[in-house]
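Appendix B. Chain record.
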Amino acid sequence: MSWMTIFKYLLPKKIGPDEFLIFVLGAGLALIVLQGFDSETAPYISAIFLAILGSFSYRWQKEVDRKNEIAAELRNLFAEFAEASNSVYYSQPFIGVDFSEVEKKEFYSIGTKEQHFGIVRDKITLLAPSLVVESVKRHDKAMRTWKIEFTKDGNISIERKAKMNEIINNYHTSYEIALTEMRKCVADKIAG
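Structure tokens predicted for this chain:
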């Protein structure tokens, strides 16, 4: 087994120049100590080098932990988006299902579910990368179009039904695109 193979397994996938330098210095010190460096000064030199190595390792680990923390925050926010979006969609008065006047009024106005969706959308706008924000804004626009065009009396003409099917398909497509961008974002945060 060559030294390069050993280094390949010992080193993390992505390593910066600082970490590489410390690794080489630590390996060099270990070789010096193993070859019989002055036995009285070797522990002190080893301690100094290990302290330096530890400080760089600590910084690197904190950076990794922060990336994981950001990915977890985004995952939670994106899950909240999915919940809020579905909550608005499934609050619609379905044909053949009796909805009270209160439920209908809540749906046709900007009710608490839609307000919650707006809050989550705004959080994503502040925290997420631009591709996710753009997809969420497209979904928000599709949702608003869907709600505006939603029939209030349940009677619908064939032409209107075709238009509503197109609007609903646009709504679902924009939702799927937003979820796909969110999954990519979280994967990128974890990988990078």
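Further analysis of this model is presented in Appendix C.
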